[in-house]
Design brief:
450 residues, alpha/beta, FAD/NAD(P)-binding domain, protoporphyrinogen ix oxidase, domain 3, 7-stranded mixed sheet, 20 strands
């Protein structure tokens, strides 16, 4: 029987460990702190609930759905977002404007100019780029959809997902499914139609696409996995050595020696040099330390509902770079999920920093409030003081799949080939969304992006 040592306890680590356990394989999950879940952290203070990292999971595949349903206790704790989650906003000229949800709304929306809409109609007739050429997300969007929809569609989306720089992000690696649409089908619209037709003909069980969280916040997901894994999970672990021995691995932790067939490393790329590998492996890992992570500060504030002019009837607002604002976006978590604020109040989760304005991602809450409150007043008509505030600073929040990222992925493949039994996994390998983390964990190859 294969025995695996999983280092780290983020979603990638816990999901892979649960997948192994369900397959009858043995594993140890080693966490150096007393906190599980990585960036998935929820803060409860009485009737207030603030998410410090990811806010929800996009359920859009049978793999993710089946995996989640396999976790004991999942069905009793999961909650689906309200219908307001379908309504999204993008800021234009200082006002939140609804993102089109269909053909008619795309034609009539004031979010995009008339000329911008006409330009987007050319998309099905634009030839795919040569696969030998790597293209940025910004160049791809302008080439296929035009400048206006890039500025008030794709640009704010990148700020909301990656907190990244669209001119530097690689389409091929940051959005592999979008890249595949063009390469396989010739374009976004053609690919989308082809996939919809294939789905209609498929006999595979259909999964209702929805956004989910949990009754007491997203952190319940790693908590459920930790409970299911039981004694395999170890907190406050001190690892003194990780060494390749013959066909296996020796890991010394908490003063004892343990032998494993495989070692799965799920720590962030920037922390790989903190692990006690031998000199040869440390040298091989050095290039991965150069992976850039964007800094992000997350500030959650509550107001009395009567002190906010905007109805907050949606998922949230993304802010284009061209608006010249100091925030990347705002979510409306209490509009989506119940029991996040006391009755008669509303909740706003604000994101600052990223590659766009890294200097605004600061650890001091008072500084953040001084930056954010004037913005919220202008955008949503907030008045008075917040009834609640909570913040989390992430100096290295989100890995950036920038141009040339293929070299990093090739380096990961080379390391795994040279050091048999070592696996590298995490959001710097398989995409940053929680759905991607789960899909990678349940895949036979152990990762998605090659």
């Amino acid at each position: 029987m294969i025995k695996t040592c999983v280092i780290g306890s983020g979603l990638t680590a816990l999901a892979r460990a649960w997948q192994l356990k369900q397959g009858g394989q043995d594993c140890d999950i080693l966490e150096i702190s007393d906190q599980f879940g990585g960036s998935i952290q929820s803060h409860r203070a009485g009737d207030y609930l603030a998410e410090e990292g990811p806010n929800s999971i996009q359920l859009n595949s049978s793999e993710v759905d089946n995996f989640l349903r396999s976790i004991p206790g999942y069905q009793d704790r999961v909650v689906a977002a309200s219908n307001d989650s379908k309504r999204r906003f993008i800021l234009r000229n200082g006002k939140p404007m609804g993102v089109p949800t269909g053909l008619l709304s795309a034609i009539t929306t004031p979010l995009w100019s008339f000329s911008g809409k006409l330009r987007a109609l050319k998309e099905p007739f634009i030839a795919p780029i040569c696969p030998k050429k790597e293209e940025s997300v910004a160049d791809f969007a302008r080439r296929r959809l035009g400048h206006d929809i890039y500025r008030y569609g794709i640009n704010p989306l990148i700020g909301g997902i990656y907190a990244g720089e669209p001119e530097r992000l690689s389409l091929r690696y940051a959005f592999p499914k979008l890249y595949a649409l063009e390469q396989k089908y010739g374009g976004i619209l053609r690919g989308s139609i082809a996939i919809m037709r294939a789905d209609r003909k498929s006999n595979a069980p259909k999964v209702e696409k929805q956004i989910i969280s949990f009754k007491n916040g997203l952190a319940e997901l790693p908590q459920l996995l930790v409970a299911a894994l039981g004694e395999a999970v170890h907190a406050n672990v001190s690892i003194s050595s990780i060494q390749k021995i013959g066909a296996g691995w020796r890991v010394d932790w908490n003063g004892k020696t343990h032998i494993y067939d495989e070692v799965l490393i799920t720590t962030p790329a920037h922390a790989l040099d903190k692990l006690p590998f031998n000199e040869s492996l440390q040298k091989a890992l050095q290039p991965l330390l150069k992976i850039n992570y964007s800094p992000v500060s997350v500030l959650t504030v509550a107001f009395k509902q009567s002190d906010v002019d905007h109805p907050l009837d949606g998922f949230g607002v993304l802010v284009p770079e061209y608006e010249g604002r100091k925030i990347l976006g705002v979510l409306f978590p209490a509009s989506l999920f119940a029991s996040r604020v006391p009755a008669g109040e509303v909740l706003l989760t604000v994101f600052l920093g990223g590659e766009r304005q890294a200097e605004l991602a600061v650890p001091d809450k008072d500084t953040l409030l001084a930056t954010v409150l004037p913005e919220l007043k202008e955008l949503f008509g907030t008045t008075g003081e917040p009834t609640f505030s909570h913040h989390r600073h992430w100096p290295r929040a989100i890995p950036q799949y920038n141009l040339g990222y293929g070299k990093m992925l090739a380096q990961m493949d080379a390391i795994e080939k040279k050091f048999a039994g070592l696996k590298l996994a995490g959001n710097y390998r398989d995409g940053i969304s929680l759905s991607y983390c789960i899909e990678a964990a349940v895949s036979k190859e152990g990762h998605l992006i090659a």
